[in-house]
Amino acid sequence: MTNTLTRLAAVGFSAAVALPAVGCQQQRPSENTAASAYVSATAGAETHLDVNQLMNAAIATARAMRSAHLMFSSTGVTDLLAKAYAADVTLTPTVAARGNATLKINGDYSQTQFQTVEADLWIQDANGTFVDTGPAQGTLNPAALLDPQHGVASVLAAVASPVIVDPKAHAGPDEAVKVAGTLSAAAASVLVPRSSLGAATEFPVAVWLAPVDPHPLLQIIVTVGEGSLTLRADRAEPFAVAVP
Questions:
Q1: Strands (E), the chain
Q2: Where is the signal peptide (predicted)?
Q3: Does pTM top 0.85 for this prediction?
């Protein structure tokens, strides 16, 4: 980490792109009755979703992901090299990521473009040139979240005592089922280094899942003391990134 920070400090950063009535006829009473019955039945079905089936589907979907658009942000969590980032990540044809991040350099946070290629982290300097700053692992490596065994799927699998708290929630503009539970410090360290999580051994966690099968993850928020870690996930197409 020291060597990586030293190399990062040597790169001059410039500001980068900031982290992203038609009228109708009156229904007959029979139609209104049928519509009301349908709404009531649908609401009942949503209320009685099986949380274990829901989480298992989400875990399987996360393990099958090969590309995604990830948006990470944090508030009130100290000692983070990457305070926030937005990145396209892929496992195919090779493991890679590209996007922009808010990185801590010499005590200050700066926004910059980055890529991870062949396990190395490349940062764009003030001249627009990408500079190799060393291994991405342990610094800024969003593609690791797609790892079927050790990525976001493992975070979902580690949610303890899950309970559906809102079957009609929203994650941004997306309809979602909100699940609450707890997460161990070891599981939360998939998102950020364990050293940034303090002495606590578990944290409250909220997960937003798509209400339609296969119930992909839309958002996860881990509460860390007075702060939080937020990860949003959207679908994306595979892409290739060449070594700069």
A1: 67-75, 82-90, 96-105, 108-117, 120-124, 130-135, 160-171, 174-184, 202-209, 217-224, 227-235
A2: 1-23
A3: no
